[in-house]
Amino acid sequence: MNQNRLIVLAALSLVASLAGCCTSNDILGGAQPQVAEFTYVSNENSNNVNAYSVTLSTGALTPVTGSPYDGDTGPRGVAVDPTQRFLYMANESSNDVSAYTIDATTGALTPITGSPFPVGTCNEDAGVSGVHALGTTSGPSACGPRGVAVDPSGKYLYVANELSDNVSGFTIDSTTGALTLMADSPFASTSMNGSTGPRGVAVDPSDKYVYVTNHTSDDVSGYSINATTGELTPLSGSPFPAEETPFDVVVEPSDRYVYVTNHLSGNVSAYALTAGTGALTPITGSPFPAGSEPHGIVVDPSGTYVYVANHASDNVSAYSIDSGTGALTDLTGSPFADTSTGGTTAPYGLAVDPSGKYVYVANNGSDDVAIYTITAETGVLTQMGTTGAGTGPHGVAIAAPPQ
Amino acid sequence: MKKLLLVTGLLLLCCSSSVAQDTPTIEVFGGYTYNRIVSAGSGLPINGNGWEAAADWNVNSWLGFKGDFEGAYCCHQQYFYGFLGGPQISLRKEKYTVFVHALVGGAHAQGLFTSDTDLAWALGGGVDWNVTRLVAIRVGQVDYFGTHFLNRGQNDLRVSAGFVFRFGKR
User: Fold this and answer.
1) Any idea what the CATH number is for the domain that residue B48 is in?
2) Parent domain of B24
């Protein structure tokens, strides 16, 4: 055997001896991750919020001691602040926001002094009109808070009020997490199409713009954020047209694209976000087909994949994002079935955990939470099972407090 | 480390009777790399696969200076980038070239929850099989690769292979 062949064989032997030696881990972390994760699920009928600790190696959910924690009436949207210390939950029927501190070690929730915080006075002047005049049309009731979002600075909380056609804005006390209504709150959501019916709300990563889906007027309201006060001013060109009954909205991490689920038309509207103005322009190819009655929508932390919970088809649509155009392409195998021994799942909200490994889906029909793992290289979902929740699970939020 | 030095020494001794190769001015390498990355936290090994690119400017037939870059990718969107430079010593024969290098520079890693950029260094060598005067196959390159993420030292291993393209003549 000549010298050249010996050299090649030596090299191959070395590589072969190394292959298969190692296990998946964190390049910069410990065998046990340096953060803990807790998943929270609002229950619209049992008026509470479930809290679970996440087993990071498997995604399994274990109820936190003391869970579920009482909310007010009709919990819907739920959000965690960027410091991972506070949880906020909109209560549609009682017109207020439940606020909690999150125990960094256990994930347990403790109501913040003053909670729940009313979303403000919801009366005729605030725009209750048309087909959405459910409840009274004057006085402090009939706001119908649904979606809730905290801005990236952690200073402001915004709530979409479905029944009063406006958006409530709060400042957040950085120490206690307590909420104080902004001086000019609520901020009207108006449209040439009449009553707007705001549902979903999202703040862009640059902390400059707020977007609200108007499920009655079939459009998306956009606002600029006053950096000093957090108060909202409508963007030029707002509201931006969507399809039938837009429900939820998300801005992807690079701050270039906005995605909206259209509940009745069964698709996702995709927009390019114009830097400097916040204006939304439909992307070529939009809207992109989804399942039946898409509801919640999320983007994974890497900004590569979009996931949509389809309420009437009991599955989750999954897409990859074209980084150059923002266009969505169905992942192989999408939509991924959402199944439960509890029967029809009827998923509503969903969330991706900060590590980008798991998706959790609130199953409003089967009263449980579906757990999916994400295949890192492809974004493909694999359902690992379900964990019981309260009655009528609606929204999902995940906290990852540093340990 | 001892094994690496032994292998390198044997290779240098075994083939001294072969005719020397022309010395190119610049050699450019591109190929596959495998990194055995030691977690800065747990100390457990992690497989990283990716690419390596390097350019060596030769002062004479045995001494050159190299710029070396690599990217290795792991699970759950984790990755590792290295950018190093330093001297390389080569033994050039008609059919093959043996080299050793000592490189210093920096590295950047993205873990599950955080990222870090810090000092890095590499000590190693390899063998190129000269297909023509201008093209060679890097049969294998092995490096001890040291990093200093999260204020702790890590001892990694790098193995690479690929193609070498040669330009100019000294």
Assistant:
1) 2.40.160.20
2) 2-167
Segment A364-399, tens digit of pLDDT: 999 999 999 999 889 999 999 999 999 999 999 999
Q: How many domains does chain B have?
A: 1
Partner residue facing B109 (CB), from A18, A23, A27: A27
CA distance A51 to A35: 17
What is the percent of chain B with per-residue pLDDT over 90, rounded to a whole number? Answer: 68
pLDDT at A5 over 50: yes
For residue B117, the chain A residues in CB contact (below 8 A) are none
d(CA A185, CA A202): 17
**Tokens describing residue B150:** 């999260």
- Supply the ipTM of this predicted assembly: 0.72
Strand partners for A140? none
Cα B48 to its chain centre, rounded Å, is 15
A-chain residues within 8 Å CB-CB of B39?
A: 25-31
pTM for the full predicted model: 0.67
- Render pLDDT for B129-140 as a digit per residue (tens, 0 to 9): 999 999 999 999
**Do A27 and B142 make contact, defined as CB atoms within 8 angstroms?**
no
Share of residues in chain B with pLDDT > 70 (%): 85
Tracing tokens 């991972």 back to the chain, one arrives at: A84
Among B76, B78, B145, B159, most A C-beta atoms within 10 A, so best to mutate, is B76
Q: Could A28 and B40 be called an inter-chain contact, meaning their C-beta atoms sit closer than 8 Å?
A: yes
Q: How many angstroms away from the CA of A31 is the closest CA of chain B? A: 5
> Using a CB-CB distance cutoff of 8 angstroms, which residues of chain B are in contact with residue A23?
44-46
The C-alpha atoms of residue A107 and residue A67 are separated, in whole angstroms, by 10
Q: Which residues of A touch B78 (CB under 8 A)?
A: 26-27
**Do A194 and A129 touch, CB atoms closer than 8 A?**
yes
Interchain contact, B111 vs A356, CB within 8 Å: no
Is a pLDDT exceeding 60 seen at residue A278?
yes
Q: How confident is the model at residue B5 (pLDDT cuts 50, 70, 90)?
A: low
